């Protein structure tokens, strides 16, 4: 069959339109076959760099085994092609994102004279916050390397700067500068916390972190290595919400807000929770769409609420 590649509107590429000849019919050829044919014609455009859409905006996943006919593509038809640009693996993305706070927080904590112009005797609150932040992002790095199985292999390299800003700036510089400053050092009224208050915050934070880790293992075990298998998760936390991992992370960072009583922690938590909620709603709708038997009583992220 023949199929014509056209460029997205506004593209100045001189390579398109380009007609490809594929050995087969729309009923026998798949989206993956088309993606491989594009890569043979243009070796630069690896499968993960390609975004191919039909005239009615249906996306052909380069790894999809669905036939071209199922997308309404006929012999002699056309699709629109977009180069997504150089790619970077998601595992590398997360390692870079979470590495930011691990690099930034020790600078502010240990180099107080350089940052604030004075030596700081850290309060119990500051020291505990430092330990909690470091352990949280070390856990994130561990999960990235040994727990998560990614359904998408790569993302456009240019997005790494936008994605990293959230962690490097909000949970990095923003949180570290304000929490480890002299206004919260030992002896200052703003840093005063009772032992009971500190132990309660620590206990709630540990609960949130360990619960988050447990739900990540639950999701991991739903997807055999090297597959994109999707299934309905059950077990700890999932009886109430579709994404208890987000809810437990919200608990962890809310605990940091109460421990520090700093608006910098609140700012990061509000932005992070808002983003997680957007993701949760989108994925929750996908669950209900793709699984007719999906539990109807589950909320997206917050138990009994939403």
From TrEMBL:
Domain 3-oxo-5-alpha-steroid 4-dehydrogenase C-terminal: 154-305
Transmembrane segments: 165-184, 196-213, 234-256, 262-281
Protein name: very-long-chain enoyl-CoA reductase
Organism: Bifiguratus adelaidae
Purpose of the protein: Catalyzes the last of the four reactions of the long-chain fatty acids elongation cycle. This endoplasmic reticulum-bound enzymatic process, allows the addition of 2 carbons to the chain of long- and very long-chain fatty acids/VLCFAs per cycle. This enzyme reduces the trans-2,3-enoyl-CoA fatty acid intermediate to an acyl-CoA that can be further elongated by entering a new cycle of elongation. Thereby, it participates in the production of VLCFAs of different chain lengths that are involved in multiple biological processes as precursors of membrane lipids and lipid mediators.
Subcellular location: Endoplasmic reticulum membrane
Any one GO MF annotation of this record: very-long-chain enoyl-CoA reductase activity
Presence of keyword Metal-binding: no
Gene Ontology cellular component annotations, sorted alphabetically: endoplasmic reticulum membrane
Membrane topology, record value: Multi-pass membrane protein
Key words of the record: Endoplasmic reticulum, Fatty acid biosynthesis, Fatty acid metabolism, Lipid biosynthesis, Lipid metabolism, Membrane, NADP, Oxidoreductase, Transmembrane, Transmembrane helix
Pathway: Lipid metabolism; fatty acid biosynthesis
GO BP terms in the entry: very long-chain fatty acid biosynthetic process
Similarity comment: Belongs to the steroid 5-alpha reductase family.
E.C. number(s) listed in UniProt: 1.3.1.93
First-tier enzyme category under EC: oxidoreductase
Catalytic reaction equation(s): a very-long-chain 2,3-saturated fatty acyl-CoA + NADP(+) = a very-long-chain (2E)-enoyl-CoA + NADPH + H(+)
Gene3D superfamilies per UniProt: Phosphatidylinositol 3-kinase Catalytic Subunit, Chain A, domain 1 (3.10.20.90)
């Amino acid at each position: 069959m023949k199929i014509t590649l056209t460029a997205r509107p506004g593209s100045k590429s001189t390579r398109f339109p380009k007609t490809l000849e594929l050995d087969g019919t729309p009923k026998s050829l798949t989206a993956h076959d088309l993606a491989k044919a594009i890569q043979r014609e243009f070796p630069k455009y690896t499968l993960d760099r390609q975004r191919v859409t039909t005239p009615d905006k249906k996306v052909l996943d380069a790894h999809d085994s669905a036939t071209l006919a199922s997308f309404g593509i006929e012999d002699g038809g056309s699709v629109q092609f977009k180069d997504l640009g150089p790619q970077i693996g998601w595992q590398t993305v997360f390692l870079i994102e979470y590495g930011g706070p691990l690099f930034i927080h020790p600078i502010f904590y240990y180099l107080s004279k350089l940052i604030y112009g004075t030596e700081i005797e850290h309060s119990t609150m500051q020291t505990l916050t430092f330990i909690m932040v470091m352990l949280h992002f070390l856990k994130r790095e561990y999960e990235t390397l040994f727990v998560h199985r990614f359904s998408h292999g790569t993302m456009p390299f240019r997005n790494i700067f936008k994605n990293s800003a959230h962690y490097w700036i909000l949970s990095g510089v923003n949180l570290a500068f304000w929490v480890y400053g002299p206004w919260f050092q030992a002896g200052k009224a703003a840093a005063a916390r009772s032992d009971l208050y500190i132990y309660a915050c620590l206990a709630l934070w540990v609960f949130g972190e360990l619960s988050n880790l447990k739900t990540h293992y639950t999701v991991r075990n739903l997807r055999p290595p090297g597959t994109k298998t999707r299934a309905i998760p059950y077990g700890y936390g999932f009886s109430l919400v579709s994404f208890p991992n987000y809810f437990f992370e919200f608990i962890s960072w809310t605990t940091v807000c109460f421990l520090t009583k700093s608006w910098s922690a609140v700012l990061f938590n509000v932005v992070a929770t808002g983003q997680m909620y957007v993701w949760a709603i989108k994925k929750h709708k996908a669950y209900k769409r793709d699984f007719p038997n999906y539990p109807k009583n589950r909320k997206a992220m917050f138990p009994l609420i939403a």
